[in-house]
Amino acid sequence: MKGIQIVATGSAVPKKVMTNDDWAKLVETNDEWIRTRTGIRERHMCENERNIDLGLQAARQALERSGIDKNELAMVIVATFSPDYATPSQACMIHEALELSASVAAFDMNAACSGFLFALKSAAALLEQEDKKYALIVGSEKISSKLDFTDRSTCVLFGDGAGAAVVTTDENAVFAADWGSLGNKEGLYCSYDKEDAYVHMDGQSVFKSAVRTMSECAEHVLAQAEISLEEIPYVVCHQANERIIKSVMKQLGGSEEQFFVNIGKYGNTSAASIPIALNELKESGAVKAGDRVLCVAFGAGFTHCGLLVTF
Ligand code: UT7
Questions:
Q1: How many Å lie between the centroid of ligand 1 and the Cα of residue 297?
Q2: Phi and psi for 298 in degrees, rounded to 5?
Q3: Are 10 and 277 in contact (CB under 8 A)?
C-alpha cells in the first residue's frame, strides 16, 4: 500500500487565551499544579467562534498552501467529538463553504483524540479506490462547549482549536499504521444528556492506558516499517499531558529533541492536537521534504492509532 504524504497543513485557534491564573480565579486550582502535572500554561477558548469557524480557517489555509485545485479533492473528513450540529456534518459545512463540487465526498469521524489519525488512515485506504489523488483531513474541536466549568479535574486540561492537512498517497512513502480500540466507556466520556453533557475522566486510568497503548502502537508502526526510532526526526504524540509524552519517550528510548511538545500553549485539543503540531513543525521549517514523522494518539473509547507520514 502507498504511504501517506502530507502536501500542506494549516491551523486555527480562537482569539481568547486563557492562562492557568485565569482558571485559578474560577476553580480551586493554581498555575503550579497545572504546569507540573500536565505541562499546560495556557489554552485558547472560543467566545463567539463555532467549531466550523476554526475548522474552515484551518482547511482553507491547508488548501491554499497545497496549490491544488480544490476539486482535485476526493474527500473531506473532519475528526471531531464537539460538532456544531448533530447533522449535517462539519465536513459537509466545510464542503459548502469551500464551494466544492458534488463529486467530493464529505463526512465526519469520531474517534476522540485519535480521530485525526483514524481519518488519515481511512483516507489512505479510500484514496486507493478513487481517481482523484487528494484528501482534506481536518481535526477541529470546540471542547469548551463540553466542559463543566466547576470541575477542576477536567476543565483546566482542554482547549479549542483546529488543524488540517491536504494529503495524498505515494509509492515512495512507506505505509505503516496500527490502530484499535479497547472498548472502554467509563474511563473517559461525554454524553448528550442535557443535565450532564460534560467531559468526565478517570485521569489516572487514562494516563496509564495512554502510556502503555501509545508506546506499543509506536513500536508496531516502526516494526511494520522496518525502521528504527533513530531514523525518525520527529515523533508527534497526541498532546494530552507532557508527562505522558515523556513516559512514551522513555519506553521507546527516544530523545527530547525528537518528541514534539506544544501542549503548553494549547492544552489538550483532542482531534486537533496532532494536525496543529504537524502544522507547527512545517511552519517552523523543522521538517523538510521527504522527512518521516511518527504520529501516535490515544483517546476516549479507548481508541489508539499510530502511523507514519512523509512530508
Ligand atoms: O485526551 C484524552 C486522554 N487524556 C489524558 O491522557 C489525560 C490523562 N490523565 C492525566 O493527564 C492526569 O491523570 C491528570 C492531569 C488528569 C491528573 O493528574 P494526576 O497526577 O493523575 O492527579 P490526580 O487525579 O491523582 O489528583 C491528584 C490530586 C487530587 O487531590 P487529592 O485527592 O490528592 O487531595 C485532586 O483532587 O490533585 C487534585 N486535583 C487538582 N488540584 C489542583 C485535581 N485537579 C486539580 C486541579 N488543581 N486542577
A1: 20
A2: -145, 140
A3: no
